[in-house]
Amino acid sequence: MAQNEPTIAEAHTAKIAGRFQGELDKLMVHEGAKANLRRRATEYQGKLFTKDTSKGLLDLSIHRLSVLQDKLYAHNQYGMLICLQAMDAAGKDGAIKHIMSGLNPQGVHVTSFKQPSSEELDHDFLWRHYRALPARGEIGIFNRSHYENVLISKVHPEIVLRENLPGIHSVSDITRKFWTERLHMIRQFENIVVGSGILVMKFFLHVSKEEQQKRLLSRIDDPAKNWKFSITDVQERKHWDTYHNAYELAISATSTDACPWYIIPADDKWYARVAMATIIHARMDSLNLSYPTISDQQRSSLLDARKELLL
Questions:
Q1: 280 in helix, strand or coil?
Q2: φ, ψ for residue 81 (rounded to 5)?
Q3: What is the pTM of this model?
Q4: Where are the beta strands (DSSP E) in 57-169?
Q5: N or C of the chain: less Cβ packing under 10 Å?
Q6: Separation CA 236–CA 248 (nearest Å)
């Protein structure tokens, strides 16, 4: 067998990956369409593979991503931004850990946006997100993102009062028009980001309320997971429907052809990871990245340098 010829298992996995792409296209929210979270599955319903057989596809996608990451850096014309949003315990951290395991950590920057600082509150709500954008050649991951400003802030509008905005003196001043304008600002922000050469992908890990309950209970019952548990997760769970309404509005208003949202069934962690890795590879591959070519003069200089090294 030739050195670079794929094995039968690798060829089979590649074939499944091609068929899998058709399933993944259905996870994207097309521009102008409604998110309709209640009609979307939270668990894998396909038949291409199982948890055990999915490992080969995940490994293939991770390997392909490592190759493209090297080209992304060398090409130095594009960057990539991955935004992750979800209800608590949906598996965002695990997805980052597994999907990015084969990448060069020097070229990947993960930013988890917590409660804004006093300095951040003295600027517009997108200021801290601008500062965290990846440079060309890099991959940035927003673990929770600029969308928190139309999600948790919408569920708890009193948070907006901390921004000290003109004309906003009480929660009653935060009208539907306010949220519509804020969503419009987010679309403008993402248009600017894309226009500067950053490929944007947005993932909502869609977990069921029942599965979230199991995972939160596991964090209580398993001593090794106690550190993951926060009482606020239980408190926020009481606002489940309100959060989903906010997600539906935000996703529907901001999923565009250039910056699409993908709603990932997340009850099966293994499926969420392989789906995201495959989507990221496909979108990244669409950039047609390549290593820079050199001029004849540069080639001649390289040959001269080679001769000198061999002396």
A1: helix
A2: -120, 125
A3: 0.91
A4: 79-86, 108-112, 139-143
A5: C
A6: 17
* pLDDT 10s digits, 186-198: 999 999 999 999 9
pLDDT tier at 138, thresholds 50, 70, 90: very high
- Domain range holding 91? 27-47+76-267
Q: Does the pLDDT at position 296 exceed 90?
A: no
Q: Tell me: the pLDDT tens digits for 53-88?
A: 888 888 888 999 999 999 999 999 999 999 999 999
What pLDDT is recorded for position 2? 46
Please report, for residues 27, 157, 163, 240, the alpha-carbon distance to residue 170 in angstroms, rounded to integers and kept in the order given: 38, 9, 12, 24
Residue 288 within a domain: no
Q: Is residue 21 part of a domain?
A: no
> In CATH, what number is assigned to the domain containing residue 86?
3.40.50.300
Q: Of 132, 218, 147, which is closest to residue 179 (Cα–Cα)?
A: 147
Rounded Cα distance, 160 and 223, in Å: 37
User: In this structure, what token pair is assigned to residue 74?
Assistant: 């060398």
Q: Distance between alpha carbon 221 and the CA centroid of its chain, in Å?
A: 30
- In a domain, residue 303? The reply is no
**311 Cβ neighbours under 8 A, 6+ residues apart:** none
Q: Are 56 and 7 in contact (CB under 8 A)?
A: no
Asked if residue 180 belongs to a domain, the reply is yes
